[in-house]
Amino acid sequence: MHYGDRVVYILLSLRYNARIRVKTYTDELTPLDSICSVFAGANWYEREIWDMYGVFFANHPDLRRILTDYGFDGHPFRKDFPLSGFTEVRYDDELQRVVIEPLEMTQEFHHLLQTTLFLFYRSFLTFPLPVNMAEEVKLQTAPFDARFPNQNQTRNCWQNYVDYHRCHKIKGEDYEPCDYFKRVFRSICPNAWVEKWDSQMEEGVFAAKI
């Protein structure tokens, strides 16, 4: 997995002493076809990529976490995953069992600006993007009394709100990975903005195409 939206396969031929590198593109909502039916040894590699980066492989025989614990939230090798993690796992002497508690930090988590890093790799694509990916979301003008000091923070808030609703529209209301976007925009967006956008969604006048 090459961070951004590229997945790289490196195939080694022992007979011809040669390597082939195959690059493909994906995103958080688009699965890749598993190659386990062709290369059985890719089974655990694809499980590790899913566990660490969140890339979903369709038709994998047993796609589940392989390095992290059961019930782990998030994908540790992604740049938007905090170094400290979201929870603390420790052994409680009084309860005599392992407990999982929310992590308390003295400062807020840093949020990745998707508009700068993720879009960088689009210039390497040699085929036309689908309409829903090629269309650029324009930032809705926020109230001046509620804007972030940095416009990128405002854009990050807006983009995650849009991605959340697009994810559910594409994958369905029961697709849990979509909730990641909700956790992000809920942590950085003022409540007044979210209430306003929710109202616009209900009235069908929301600024972005979902």
From TrEMBL:
Q: Identify the Pfam families for this entry.
A: Complex1_30kDa, COX6B
Give the Gene Ontology MF terms in alphabetical order: NADH dehydrogenase (ubiquinone) activity; oxidoreductase activity, acting on NAD(P)H
Q: Where in the cell is it found?
A: Mitochondrion
Q: Work out whether the entry's keyword set contains NAD.
A: yes
Q: Which GO terms describe its cellular component?
A: membrane; mitochondrion
The UniProt keywords, alphabetically, are: Disulfide bond, Mitochondrion, NAD, Translocase, Transport
- InterPro entries named among the record's database cross-references: COX6B-like, CX6/COA6-like_sf, NADH_quin_OxRdtase_su_C/D-like, NADH_UbQ_OxRdtase_30kDa_su, NADH_UbQ_OxRdtase_CS
Q: In this protein, which residues make up the domain named NADH:ubiquinone oxidoreductase 30kDa subunit?
A: 6-86
PANTHER family under this entry? NADH DEHYDROGENASE [UBIQUINONE] IRON-SULFUR PROTEIN 3, MITOCHONDRIAL, NADH DEHYDROGENASE UBIQUINONE IRON-SULFUR PROTEIN 3
Q: Which family does it belong to?
A: Belongs to the complex I 30 kDa subunit family.
| Annotated protein name in UniProt | Cytochrome c oxidase subunit 6B1
State the organism named in the record: Octopus vulgaris
